[in-house]
Amino acid sequence: MEARTLRWILGAGVAGVSLFIQAASANALESRSYVVSYFSQQLNSRDGDCPGGVNPDDQAGQYAVILQGLGYKPDEVKAMMAEWAKGGDGEDRINAIVNARAIIDGQQVNAYTHPEATKDPGLKFVTSKVGYGFNLDGKDGEVSFTDPQTGEKGVDNMLSRAIGCNQNFRGSWDAPSAYGEWIWVQLKDSQPAWLITITGEDIDKDGPVTIRLTRALEYLKSNLDGSPRHFMTYRIDPDPRSHNEFKAEIKDGELKITEHKPLSLLWNALSSPVLNLKNTHLRLKMLKGDTLDGLVGGYQPWTEIYFAFSHNGIVGDRPGLYYAMKKAADADPDPKTGMNMSISTAYRLTAVPAFVVESPHLRYQSAEVK
Amino acid sequence: MTKLQNRRNILKGMIGGTAVTVGLPFLDVFLNANGTAIAQTGAALPTVFGTWLQYLGFNPGRWIPDRAGKGYNNNIELKVFDPFKERMNIVSGANYFLDGRPVETHRTGAQIATLGGIPTGRDSGPSVDSIIADSIGTRTRFRSIEVSLMGDRRSYSKRAGAAVNPSEPSPDALYKRIFGPEFQDPNAGEFTPDAKVVAKRSVLSAVADQRHAIMGQLGASDRARLDEYFTSVRQIENQLAMKLEKPAPLPACHVPGAKQEAQPGEEVAQVSTNTKLFADLLANAVACGQTRVFNVFMDAQGARKPGSTNGWHGYTHEEPIDEKLGYQKEVTWFILWANQVCAEFLTTLQNQKEGAGSVLDRTLILWQTDHGYARTHTMDNLPVITIGNAGGRFKTGMHIPFSGDPATRMGLTVMQGFGVSMSTWGSLSNQTQKPVTEILA
Description:
The complex is a heterodimer of chains A (370) and B (441).
Chain A: E1 5-6, E2 17-18, E3 21-22, E4 30-41, H1 59-69, H2 74-86, H3 88-99, E5 102-104, E6 107-109, H4 158-163, H5 178-188, E7 192-200, E8 207-219, E9 232-235, E10 244-251, E11 254-257, E12 263-268, E13 272-287, E14 291-301, H6 302-310, H7 318-328, E15 331-333, E16 340-357
Parallel strand pairs in A: 9-16
Antiparallel strand pairs in A: 1-3, 2-16, 4-7, 4-16, 5-6, 7-8, 8-10, 10-11, 11-13, 12-13, 13-14, 14-16, 15-16
Helix pairs in contact in A: 1-2, 2-3, 6-7
Chain B: E1 10-15, E2 18-23, E3 48-54, E4 69-70, E5 88-94, H1 107-115, H2 128-136, E6 145-148, H3 171-179, H4 195-206, H5 208-215, H6 220-243, H7 268-287, E7 293-298, H8 312-318, H9 329-351, E8 353-354, E9 357-358, E10 363-368, E11 382-387, E12 398-401, H10 408-417
Parallel strand pairs in B: 3-7, 3-10, 5-12, 6-7
Antiparallel strand pairs in B: 1-2, 4-12, 5-11, 8-9, 10-11
């Protein structure tokens, strides 16, 4: 063996084993791998950032507004809500009215499947000037944020403006939103984990590296207290839809993508079937204990986000969120309609060290996002 | 002189040349000195198993006792159980494991708690209560009784396959089921077999040969299905046979009077009122020998305060954490309320006296939940609680911290404590061979 310092060698000579291998030689490359241990939309909710307060924060509040919008008089709405509150058949009846409030060709249809066929309830938008994310378009506009960590101006995170006045989504760096934590807890033990592999000449020093983001065949392994377990082995899913490779650099202990290509990772229907980002940005601090913590951002198709919201009753007024995202969308104009089909986003990402093994039978390839 | 020694004493005589018999009511002389056993047989009053499944867990940092082992002090959210502390065991740090299987929020945790794993499709193994009922509940009129506190019929009590034992949401209906016309008072002097029961039993007997013949014509899969079905039929046969015998007298059995129920529903006042009625009915059902297994399901999700349209579950997702308190205020109100309701339920069992003891003394209740922390619906650091010692079969008064062990350990433990011959329970990472021996007497 050459003069190398090898850490966590799983199997020398096995093709595709990607581990913490630190090389002393200038020509040798080392790789460090991680498994994602938290991922969720990052907001920066603060008191007063929604004019007049947040949107109605319970189902009943939304229902009352919806029923008024359907033309019921105030006393009728009051009686209906009292009926709904009693539960049983009365609750089912009111639910049916609310659920089927969309109208197409004079026929009542499901409002969550057909949000365009409902009235826009006009949900509030976050008006704050401080928010997490990246300057994706290189401009500093009226609706841009200033990132509280980096001080970067022109930060684009219109998703946080669109959903941030709904109680379930409100959160901060230190206190993640209830929705974000809920999604994560539901998925962490049941969906295949996401993997990160950094490859470079000396990952402890500043310099160019390559970063791969892939999906595992295994779900995140946890300790018995529920925390992510370090140094577990994961196999890369050979499905090319979750194979991504970016040029990146390490500077002052922070990893950043320098090549802003699309990102595609198979996800879950509860959150979004696929995480598709364009103009992908990433910044991850490489912390003590070999963990990563930071943000991934880019432009995400907002209809894919709505897909998850549409069948998830805990997010608030679903058609309202549909309209809010439609209005806030800031990229990818449809060539025919001019409507923006993507919305700027930022996701918090943390990761812990792992061993990552590629299948020796399937060649690694980057995904082409179409 | 007639000697009073047999619980089936009757007075025999002749009237006008015709033999007549007159049954005697149950008398204290039939009991032992402590009232805990039937003097004639010396048999202890039978043990009872109950479950209390309550959705939405507790708040982190507010329920784990201050120390492990005996002599613990209850944390704030369990203070209401202080009167039962010496008869409780509290397990902390238990986990439900998904093993990469999709999670169905609330249901998956409850399935692991009751079935030992996540079923594939509709079929599954039997639930803990059914397994125990097969051991201790075959000689009672009701193999088990299921009640739902929130006005619906949902239940996690299952036999093998897809057969669910649905919950009864109405105390009135449960009263009629237990103490209606088919109730045979064990202390009544006279015993007259119900003609309808005789007829039902005759009908089942008549088709027995055909049942056996059909089994011989089927493939393995259909035979398995029919076997499960016939198991239920045999259970009915056994119960019918039992109804044709005079029940053993039970001095603590008093038929409760009918009481006004609240409309079954999710408002806390409705739930509180009906839980008290259910508690009274179940305590009397046990005292009257009608069942030895009961299941209480507090779905909890829709629980709401009077005049409020948001419920417990809605608050878990939507209510911000109070910055000063460090927890969700409304959610915490519901947790404390539910625990109060549970404590009142236990008090009712305790007040159902049987000689010097009570129904609670011969009962063990297994308290479980679906999620550890409802705000994020976690599947770890779960509480599992037992209340009662089932007539001395279990040791109590302990806080037992798990280190992320599967919660199914407690299911296995109580099954073994009730005499079920089982060394392994659960599936995949929820499988365990490790009962909590500290609490097995």
